[in-house]
Design brief:
The complex is a heterodimer of chains A (about 500) and B (about 1050). Helix content of chain A is about 40%, strand content about 5%. Chain A has 17 helices and eight strands. In chain A, the strands form four sheets. A two-stranded antiparallel sheet of chain A has the order 1-3. Chain A has a two-stranded antiparallel ribbon with strand order 2-8. In chain A, helix 8 packs across helix 13, helix 13 packs antiparallel against helix 15 and helix 14 runs parallel beside helix 15. The longest helix of chain A has 25 residues. Chain B is mainly β. The two termini of chain B are about 35 Å apart. Classes of the chains: A mainly alpha (about 500), B mainly beta (about 1050). Chains A and B meet through helix 1, helix 2, helix 4 and helix 17 of A and strand 23, strand 26, strand 28, strand 29 and strand 39 of B.
């Protein structure tokens, strides 16, 4: 009897134990998709994530490295954040090379994929709560996507122009022609201009604005406007660019050049038209460690000699003999470099040696993508090509801040003014991904052939060949596509 | 109630008393006509051996000391028998007999632990290998997984580094079963409940069984696709009213198995540094000047101009100790085994340490004739310290230094130690590890692993029993990553401040994760045997519930004014935190039936029906059945009639079954979004960002592995055991991530796609011998060989996938090598000019020359490009083997285990292969064998700095494929047991002292500095050097009261 009682008790206990609920274990730490995309707040979060997507390295804080593709700088061989730029600078290009060739493509499309999902959901969403911001949101997403395509267009030329979410089945897309990429890009930017509010960047509190879209479109137009001979081939595009730039209002030059690139001053800047923002400690990058501490790229003599006597931008951009002194600080010994020249622009000021940057540094510089100083010079360039008056005034605004004499209003030929503007752009914009853009569209990349970047670098011989005008698409992507994605010619 | 408490108390008291009065056993000496002792071949006394006077019913059994007394007269014959041993007939001569019993090679009663129970070895129809705990504990290593090396055919255990407490041991049963993230790790069960070998006290192990085929493993269904390893712990049963207290201690010296042989002589380093920089076209400033070189040549001040050997400084012999104390015995109907252990293991490299403490108790009690219960409790706590960026980083940083400076500046009289940045600006180096270690930038881990089990077995009726077990496993890991101190580093010669020590960030991370795993299973078992054993039936059915939850919280603060290694010790100005949890559940029903006809024809059916939370409802349940047959040929009367004395036993086995694998991401079918994609629009606060970053797949189903196995077990010549298995293991519906390209950008979903086949042969031979007479009487010896060969083939995959010099292509082994074929070094300009153009490269004499294999049109085209990549064999070994030898005589014992791998190649580059990688010194070997104009036949490329000339030489190519075959003397043990007559006098049952050496000898062609014993299944393991493994020389003592 006792035996049966015990056993019954045991069976009872065990039966209670067998709960079938143990197989239902929904995620505990992340939201599920079926409860998302339901309200304005959801779309705001999704849009924030789209901006966050723009923080990918080659889309944002790696911006100085691109000058290592030009006559401005040389990237230390083997340094990971140089992304093998030195090999491209030497025209030693291979589709399998890791670094920029693989990463710009990968990171731009990663941001694009997120933007396409956002745009797709926005179109599907019927809720009235976003009626007032729907256009602005759409415009912002189109602007961000256009910035990605602008980079892809500039670096690779022909790429797949993807504007819808892809699936496993549709992912293997062929590339579009150069014309199609250009047409789509300008079309999207025009849509962004139409849809977005016309506010200043400061007033928009970090969201993209109509002005930003206009500025970016002008940049694309001015890239496309030049022919193979380096002369303006599409005057209408220059005209359109001029009109776009001329209708951007509310911006002026900040007083201090270096401040544009320092986090303490960026939020109050009247000059920044668009930037990719960071806020330490949680939203940060390693700019100061990579460029300050490691000093992985070096400005070269060819850039130094471009500066005029008395140009205050030089010392705000470059340090010499591996030493530097910020306003109000002591002389700091920098990590020794091969030519003693170091990029100082963008870096967090270090006032005493012990305050040196290190790996700890969670840097938060906003990465300035569009700013009025550069746009003013672009406008001047357009005006000059269009034979308009008042060109020198625009340039002089920039020169004045640099502590330089004004260019004469009269008696300067169009060609002389063109050279003056090109010179001014070079010294105004190092390490902002402008020099590469300029050299490429002006068709002066061949200057690199045989150029001695720096007398201390006699063995470093940059090179450029027309056949490698565009970078190759990453070999891994070509391999994967089974012939659908066609490699750029000459690779 | 009171009675019960009293009983418990007295029981506890007895336990304590017994523990106190160690070994004060009650040996009653009686007077009879004949007495004797019985031992086994290793000299251990045997309890409970039956001694019968032949032809009579008079008999006795031996006592706890192996003694017996029996009334017999001279010339009588005694029949001595014991289960598992050969029965002996002994003639009575004299009054004190010493009888040694030999183990019976074809032990009919030997049982093997299988899933949910045990089975007689002779009745096994599946492929199961087993080994006893004492075999394992011969190895003087701290990690129990390592001990499984070479113990059984079909089980491959590799470790690729010797870091204390983090050996990265990889266990594979019959090769790599799948390429999915579900993984190829076998299921490891400790007394039936999932556990971790690395934290298990080896002294607790009674036996280890490995279930290799579907027949034996399918009772574990969805988790058994990669085989199952069953660990059974010792519980003191069979000790017959005896307490045994044992102490095992081991003192070892660890040294690295291999280190790079680099040029730490400064003038030589400088000379080749300059040469490398010349060849690499580096800026002219990047050279040692003649004055610098002169200063280091025969320097007057050796501290200012040193030739510092960083490896020698950082690596030192490590003194390792292990201690174990155990108490085991039986009290009434209760038997127990309690064990305490500790391991203290500093690494051979400075900064790495490990300590572990284990406590375990296994207890079993018969409450009455039909209720048995038991429990197992094991806890371990480990303390591990590592330099914070990891062992590999520490080792590589140590190498990546020039000999031209010491880790610290010459004392300037201040007494403050200043750490060196480097000597000259143009030198390349990595972080100063001496500084990192001395300023205590460590990651410290504290691990706790508690496994508690209780079980109950009821004998309901004759042959019918009911077994239930509940278990909890709690694991906790606390990790502190401290690098809060900012330490300046200085230029060696000028003493100027140069930078801060590269600690990879500042601050303290303190992360805690903990997991709870619950397991409950219960089963009914029914055995029935007809008279004369014509029909034997056995049925078993049960169910099993498992659930798991993992939690993690972590916090970080950046600034610390004081060296307080707690979050609160820092300022709150910069701080972050995180937290998450995960859960899964598994529910199963299982079933087994055995039938034996006349003990000759054996049939077994297993099945398990599993449901998992990781797969969507519609497809979460899977059935995993298996069938196996056995035929004991030697039991057939016609076989017996042949009278083949040489064939003692032969059994044929065959099995087929399917197993599952569900070890994928927990939430693959939930469309979840990622949080934390935050953005600071206004630079004052973050706006929370949410994005879809991956695809989900609700149609996922189980990954399935079907295994067919055919084998035989034979005993020949009364001592030679042969086991043979042939198997084919096919894994299909492989759970893997779909292939996504850059445009898709999101994490591709898991899909069921692809198929892989492993075919193989396993052979095990072992021979036990014993010399019964002559001078060498009492000499016992054994020898064994395991041979293991497995072939992998990807049978369904989709389009080729090429990455990192490997290819996944149908018809080839998974991730076969796919690269350019290097055919030598260009001798001179003419050689370059007359050979196919290699890419767009600036190919120079001394660069690597590739073979023109194909082209756009599938034919050699006089150009070397990606079309010339080709498949190169050697991804997996041709075969692996193990050799065991052992002998015992007059108290001495000897054993040797050697292990080898044949026909595998490893892709190895960077440090040790690329001269001056991150400034690391060139090897002497490279200097002697590199191409130069004077040595156009050099086998190594022209000397470049750091990157071997860049892409032109470092594209995936076979120059970097090295022969990874090796034979290694894994262990050699030599022991001596002091005769019991002597030790008994001081109440010691057994005293053995031994020498045990690990990894004493390696025969290989693999480049020096790299260890050929490595986990070759990952294509990402492409460095020559890792933190070196350990060569161990140890002395130990086994003491038993």
């Amino acid at each position: 009897m006792k035996k049966i009682a015990y056993i019954s008790l045991l069976i009872g206990t065990l039966t209670l134990n067998s709960c079938s609920g143990i197989l239902d274990t929904p995620p505990t730490s992340t939201p599920s998709e079926d409860v998302f995309w339901q309200s304005k707040a959801d779309f705001e979060s999704a849009l924030a994530a789209c901006y966050q997507g723009m923080q990918e390295e080659t889309l944002s804080w790696i911006i100085p490295t691109f000058d290592c593709l030009t006559d401005n700088a040389y990237g230390n061989q083997g340094s990971s954040k140089v992304y093998n730029a030195d090999m491209i600078q030497a025209d030693n290009i291979d589709p399998s090379t890791t670094g920029l060739i693989a990463n710009i493509y990968k990171e731009a499309y990663k941001a694009i994929a997120r933007l396409n999902l956002f745009l797709d959901q926005l179109n599907k969403y019927q809720g009235g709560d976003i009626a007032s911001v729907r256009n602005q949101m759409e415009g912002e997403a189109l602007f961000l996507r256009s910035y990605c395509y602008y980079l892809l267009y500039m670096f690779y030329g022909e790429v797949p122009y993807i504007d819808k979410p892809l699936t496993l089945e549709t992912q293997n897309a062929p590339k579009n022609t150069l014309d199609e990429v250009y047409t789509n890009l300008t079309r999207d930017l025009q849509a962004a201009i139409t849809k977005m509010d016309d506010k200043t960047y400061k007033a928009a509190k970090g969201h993209a604005t109509q002005g930003a879209a206009k500025a970016l479109k002008a940049r694309v137009l001015m890239f496309h406007a030049y022919g193979d001979d380096g002369k303006v081939a599409h005057k209408d595009e220059v005209e359109e660019a001029y009109i776009l730039l001329n209708t951007i209002t509310g911006y002026s030059l900040d007083e201090n050049y270096a401040d544009i690139f320092r986090p303490a001053n960026q939020e109050s800047s009247d000059e920044i038209v668009f930037s990719i923002k960071f806020l330490a400690p949680n939203s940060y990058h390693s700019f100061d460690n990579s460029y300050g501490n490691y000093g992985m790229l070096n400005p070269v003599e060819d850039l130094v000699k471009e500066y005029e006597e008395g140009d205050n931008r030089m010392v705000q951009t470059i340090a010499f003999n591996d030493k530097y002194q910020w306003e109000g600080g002591e002389v700091i010994n920098l990590t020794k470099s091969s030519n003693g020249k170091r990029m100082m622009k963008w870096l967090r000021p270090v006032l005493k040696q012990s305050d040196y940057w290190n790996q700890t540094e969670r840097s938060e510089q906003d990465i300035v993508i569009l700013r009025w100083g550069e746009l003013l010079l672009l406008k001047a360039e357009a005006a000059n090509e269009l034979d308009m008056a008042g060109v020198a005034d625009m340039v002089n605004l920039v020169r004045e801040r640099a502590g330089l004499d004004a260019l004469p209003e009269e008696g300067v030929s169009k060609e002389q003014m063109r050279e003056a503007i090109r010179h001014e752009r070079r010294v105004e914009t190092p390490f902002e991904l402008i020099r590469y853009y300029d050299m490429k569209r002006w068709k002066i990349m061949d200057k690199l052939n045989g150029l001695v970047l720096d007398p201390l670098y006699p063995n470093i011989i940059p090179a450029w060949s027309k056949k490698h005008e565009y970078l190759p698409l990453p070999q891994g992507q070509i391999d994967f596509s089974n012939g659908v994605l066609v490699q750029n010619p000459n690779y | 109630m009171k009675n019960k408490t009293d009983y418990l108390w007295s029981f506890m008291q007895r336990l304590v008393l017994m523990a106190l009065f160690l070994g004060l056993g009650l040996g009653v000496q009686a007077q009879t006509s004949v007495t004797g002792t019985i031992t086994d071949t290793s000299g251990e006394t045997m309890i409970g051996v039956s001694v019968m006077l032949k032809g009579t019913s008079t008999g006795t059994i031996t006592d706890i000391d192996g003694r017996f007394q029996i009334a017999a007269k001279q010339g009588d014959i005694l029949a001595v028998s014991y289960i598992g041993y050969k029965t002996q007939e002994v003639k009575v001569t004299g009054t004190l007999l010493k009888i040694v019993l030999q183990e019976d090679a074809q032990n009919l009663e030997e049982v093997v632990v299988v899933g949910y129970g045990t089975q007689k070895k002779v009745n096994l129809t599946g492929a199961v290998s087993a080994v006893g705990g004492e075999e394992l504990s011969k190895r003087p290593v701290a990690n129990t997984s390592t001990m499984l090396q070479g113990q059984m055919p079909g089980l491959r255990v590799t470790s690729d580094r010797g870091i204390p407490g983090d050996e990265n041991v990889q266990i594979r049963v019959r090769g790599q079963g799948t390429y999915s993230s579900a993984g190829s790790n076998p299921l490891i069960l400790i007394n039936g409940v999932e556990g971790d070998l690395a934290t298990l006290d080896p002294n607790m192990i009674e036996s280890v069984s490995v279930l290799k085929d579907a027949a034996s493993a399918s009772i574990y269904g969805s988790r058994a696709a990669n085989g199952v390893i069953l660990i059974t712990t010792k519980n003191g049963s069979g000790m017959k009213e005896k307490v045994s207290v044992a102490y095992n201690g081991n003192y070892a010296v660890h040294t690295p198995t291999t280190l790079l042989d680099l040029v730490w002589d400064s003038p030589t380093y400088m000379k080749y540094f300059n040469m490398a920089k010349d060849n690499s076209g580096a800026p002219a400033t990047d050279r040692y000047s003649q004055e610098m070189i002169d200063a280091y040549t025969n320097p007057s001040d050796k501290e200012r101009y040193p030739s510092f050997d960083w490896i020698d400084y950082m690596f030192n012999p490590a003194f390792v100790q292990q201690h174990n104390l155990s108490v085991a015995g039986t009290v009434g109907k209760t038997s127990y085994n309690a064990s305490l252990s500790m391991v203290k293991q500093p690494g051979t490299m400075k900064g790495q340490t490990y300590e572990r403490y284990n406590a375990a108790l296994d207890l079993k009690s018969e409450i009455n004739s039909w209720i048995k219960f038991g429990m197992y409790f094991a806890g371990s706590r480990g303390y591990r310290q590592q330099t914070r960026q990891g062992d590999t980083d520490a080792y590589l940083s140590t190498i990546s230094q020039a000999p031209t400076y010491m880790p610290w500046l010459p004392d300037d009289g201040s007494g403050i130690r200043k750490y060196t940045y480097k000597a000259y600006q143009f030198e390349g180096n990595n972080k100063n590890m001496v500084g990192i270690i001395e300023t205590e930038n460590f990651k410290k881990y504290v691990n706790t692993d508690v496994n508690a089990q209780a079980w109950l077995e009821l004998n309901l009726a004759k042959g019918l029993s009911w077994y239930s077990k509940g278990a909890i496993r709690y694991k906790q890991n606390h990790e502190k990553d401290w690098r809060a101190q900012v330490t300046p580093v200085y230029w060696y010669h000028t003493g100027e401040s140069a930078n801060n020590l590269n600690t990879g960030g500042t601050g303290l991370d303190s992360d805690m994760d903990y997991s709870t795993y619950l397991n409950f299973y219960t089963y009914l078992k029914y055995d029935w045997t007809s008279k004369l054993h014509n029909h034997d039936f056995s049925l078993m059915a049960g169910y099993n519930l498992e659930s798991y939850r993992y939690d993690k919280v972590g916090a970080y603060r950046q600034f610390y004014d004081f060296p307080l290694h707690e979050i609160d010790g820092g300022t709150a100005s910069v701080q972050t935190n995180e937290g998450k949890s995960e859960e899964w559940g598994l529910m199963s029903v299982f079933f087994r039936a055995n039938y034996a006809f006349k003990q000759r024809y054996l049939l077994e059916v297993n099945a398990r029906y599993d449901g998992t939370s990781r797969i969507a409802k519609a497809s979460r349940w899977g059935l995993f059945p298996s069938f196996s047959l056995g035929w004991r040929i030697t039991e057939e009367s016609w076989m017996k009639n042949l009278n083949w004395n040489w064939l003692n036993n032969l059994k044929l086995r065959g099995s087929y079954g399917v197993l599952g694998n569900q070890n994928i991401d927990l939430y693959s079918y939930y469309a979840v979004l990622s949080t934390g994609k935050d953005y600071s629009f206004d630079n004052s606060e973050l706006t929370s960002g949410v994005a879809q970053t991956k695809f989900s797949n609700v149609n996922l189903k189980w990954e399935t592995t079907a295994i067919g196995d055919f084998g035989f077990d034979a005993t020949l010549f009364n001592g030679l055991n042969v086991t043979f298995d042939w198997y084919k293991k096919k894994t299909y519906d492989i759970l893997r991530k779909a292939q996504g390209n850059n445009l898709l950008a999101l994490d591709a979903p898991y899909i069921n796609s692809g198929e892989m086949v492993n075919k193989g042969v396993e052979i095990g031979l072992s021979y036990n011998g014993y010399i019964n007479n002559g001078k060498m009487k009492g000499f016992s010896y054994n020898a064994g060989v395991f041979f293991d060969r497995s072939r992998n083939e990807l049978t369904k995959y989709g389009s080729d996938y090429i990455a990192n010099g490997t290819i996944c292509r149908e018809g080839l082994p998974y991730e076969s090598f796919y690269m350019l074929e290097a055919i030598g070094i260009f001798k001179d300009e003419e050689d370059v000019a007359s050979s196919p153009k290699q890419y767009n490269d600036n190919t120079l004499p001394g660069d690597i020359k590739f073979k023109d294999i194909s082209g756009k049109d599938g034919k050699p085209d006089g150009v070397i490009d990606d079309y010339d990549r080709t498949v190169i064999d050697g991804r997996f070994p041709d075969f692996e083997y193990t050799i065991n030898l052992g002998a015992a005589w007059k108290g001495f014992d000897f054993s040797l285990m050697g292990q080898g791998v044949q026909g595998v190649k490893h892709y190895a580059k960077d440090w040790g292969i690329h001269p001056f990688k991150q400034g690391s010194p060139i090897s002497w070997d490279y200097i002697e064998n590199m191409w130069t104009e004077e040595n156009p036949n050099g086998k190594y490329p022209r000397l470049y700095y750091d990157n071997m000339g860049g892409t032109k030489n470092t594209r995936a190519n076979s120059f970097f494929l090295y022969n990874g075959s090796y034979f290694r003397l894994k262990n050699l043990t030599l022991g001596y047991t002091v005769p019991q007559e002597l030790t008994r006098k001081v109440k010691i049952e057994k005293l053995r002292v031994y020498f045990s050496g690990d990894n004493l000898l390696t025969i290989t062609k693999f480049p020096q500095g790299g260890d050929p014993e490595r986990n070759y299944t990952s294509k990402d393991n492409t460095r020559l050097v890792y933190y070196p493994q350990n060569r161990i020389v140890s002395f130990g003592v086994n003491l038993q009261f």
